[in-house]
Structures are given as C-alpha cells and as structure tokens.
Automatic annotation (TrEMBL):
Belongs to the bacterial solute-binding protein SsuA/TauA family. Its main location: periplasm. Residues 1-21 form the signal peptide. It comes from Acaryochloris thomasi RCC1774. The gene is ssuA_3. This is Aliphatic sulfonates-binding protein. GO terms for cellular component: periplasmic space. Keywords: Signal.
Length: 359
C-alpha cells in the first residue's frame, strides 16, 4: 500500500526542503471591486476536510474585498507549517494542538483562534479481531503522530488500562489509515468523518469504542480545529492578519444563514459530495452532534478568553489555556517537546482583539 508519511516535526527545523507545488483552488470570485481596487494576496492552506472549507465561502462570496485569498489544499499539515516557516504561506487551518511544538522548535507559526470542537466526528475504531483494549498491546494503531489523533489515542488507551508505550503508532494520513484498517495492517485507528464511516461500512465487525461527542472529550475540548498564522504575517502585515480572520468568521456567518448554499460551495472546493460535507458540519447551520460545532466569532472569542460569557457545550471562558496545558503535557510524554511553555509564547491574540474592537 502506498503510504504518504508526515514529514515529522524535525523537518520544521530544516534550512532547506523540497517545496511541493500546490495548485491554487479557484472559486469563481467576481470581486466586488471590479478590479479597480488593488487587493492584498494572502496565501491560505487547508487539508481536505469540511471543517476547514469556510475559506472557499469567503473567496466565492468575496466577503472581505480587500483580500485576494490564494487557497491551496495540502494534505500534510506539517508541510503547511514548513511553507509558513519559509515565508511561502501565510496561514493554515489545522487541528489545534500544534502551538506547543512550534514554540519548542522555534517555528515562526502561532495559533490565532480555536475554530470548532469535535462533537462526534472523531472516533476510535477497533478491528474485528480486537475484543478488548488489552489486546492492542504490541499491535499497530493508526494515528497522525504529532497530531491530536495521537493524544486522543493515548488518553483512551490509558483510560482503558493500556500504556501508550505498549502499542506501535503507525503514522499515516487519513485516507491511508482507512486502507490500513481495511487491509488488516493496523488493529485500530482514530478516524474523523467521512473516513470513520468508510471503515465501519467497509470492514465487517469493526466497531467504534469511543466518540468525541462523549462528555469526557467535550469537557476537555481536546479535539478541535484552529487557525494558524505565520509570524511574518502577524508582525509585518497586521492589518492583513486581522482581515484574514474577518474573512473566515464572515464565511461562518454566511454559512449559518445560508447552510445549503454554503455546503455546496465547500463541497465544490473540496471535491466532496455535499452529503459528506453535511456529515461533518451539518445541514442547518446549527451545532451538529455527530459532527463538529462550528464557532462563530463571538463563540470563538469566549473560548479564547477575549470576550465575556461561556462558549457552547458547557465549555468555559478562556479554555484555550487549559487546552494548551493538556496538549503540552502529552507532547512531553511523547517526547515531542522538552518543556512546557506559557500560552502567550505560541498564541497570538492580537488579530482577534483587533477584529473584536471593530464590532
């Protein structure tokens, strides 16, 4: 089976690396300025998942006319971080755990917003041969090493009496993880939608043993997504950074008010079926149990501790700091960071502060 492995966090420190040309995704943006106003180009990446597809809405609907969004799909998040480090990419949407690694390795990338918690889209699935978690000892399990899936698996294993060191983590991206499960190469794996359904439908006897909709996972807000920006964008073009965040949250607002049209735009941008998009973010613009809870600016700012009030689903104001602590502790367990840093070292609050000041 052809396997595309993650570059790994050490690649981020390389002085030179091969740059994979990523074709920009175009979405029929007519442009409200009619070509008269000069737009500032901002390069954004995401990997193929509906939770990140709001960038396509922002571009299609020209929601922030001052910006020209150059959107690329890059399936390996570490490749995106590499490109951000070298000044070839300005921002990316990815899972929310990378900040402590970036600080530890002096990577010029910062988290700027938590954008949504998983509310059922993530599951740990066991192969038919595994009847009890203890049977995973010595077996291969599929995760993205250096990603939330590894922490999710590690916590679940320990909650079920299995030391994470007693399993062999197999480092694969999601489509390859499905193939590894179906072929029997791995005994378990962490999957998000629509890949989890593909495993359960394609492998008779496979079963999900935990879901991110459970109270334990919701309380931690562990499983979620975030927006990252390069330090060069943050420091050299702060107005563009603010406008980029505005573009994303304006797209979320559009989607909440026009979910059918928004889902079609996302599906087209990702080359997904609309149904697969709905299985992740829902069909009505509301919090979707079984998928994710898409945060608007107000909800995200509460989670980041920049606005008063509580975020949805029983989370607490400023919970990003608890999230930072939890992921930092696990990265130290896995040996990916040497010591815990303070949240301010890896989180840039200024773009959201500036955006909120205009509301």
């Amino acid at each position: 089976m052809k396997r595309r492995r993650l570059f790994g966090f050490v690649c981020l420190m390389a002085v030179t690396f091969t740059v994979v040309a990523c074709s920009s995704q175009t979405s029929g943006n007519s442009g409200a300025s009619g070509g008269v106003e000069k737009k500032e180009t901002v390069k954004v990446s995401l990997f193929s998942w509906p939770g990140y597809g709001f960038w396509f809405i922002a571009k299609e609907k020209n929601l922030v006319p001052e910006l020209d969004l150059d959107i690329s799909i890059i399936e390996d998040p570490y490749e995106s971080f590499n490109l951000m480090s070298s000044g070839q990419l300005d921002a990316t949407s990815s899972t929310v755990e990378y900040g402590p690694i970036a600080v530890d390795k002096d990577v010029p990338v910062k988290l700027v917003s938590y954008t949504n918690p998983s509310y059922g889209t993530d599951r740990i699935i066991l192969s038919p041969q595994i009847k009890d978690p203890s049977e995973l000892k010595g077996k291969k399990v599929a995760v993205l090493e250096g990603g939330l899936t590894q922490i999710y698996m590690g916590i679940w294993l320990e909650e079920n009496g299995v030391n994470f060191k007693d399993v062999e983590f197999t480092n694969v991206i999601m489509d390859d993880a499905v193939a590894a499960m179906l072929s029997g190469e791995v005994a378990a794996g962490e999957f998000w939608e629509p890949f989890g359904t593909q495993v359960l439908e394609g492998l008779e006897g496979a079963r999900a043993v935990t879901s991110s909709s459970e109270d334990f996972w919701i309380k931690t807000a562990l499983l979620g997504d975030g927006m990252y920006m390069s330090e060069s964008l943050l420091n050299d073009r702060p107005e563009a950074a603010k406008l980029l965040m505005k573009a994303y949250f304006e797209a979320v607002t559009f989607w909440k008010e026009n979910p059918e049209e928004g889902n079609k735009i996302i599906a087209e941008g990702l080359k997904f079926d609309v149904k697969d998009v709905e299985n992740v973010i829902g069909a009505d613009g509301e919090i979707y149990k079984g998928g994710i809870a898409v945060f608007d600016l107000e909800e995200a700012s509460k989670f980041m501790g920049l606005a008063e009030g509580e975020p949805p689903l029983g989370m607490k104001n400023g919970q990003i700091r608890d999230h930072w602590d939890l992921t930092s502790e696990w990265w130290m367990k896995f040996g990916l960071v040497e010591e815990k840093a303070e949240p301010e070292a890896g989180i840039a609050f200024e773009p959201m502060k500036s955006l909120l000041a205009e509301q």
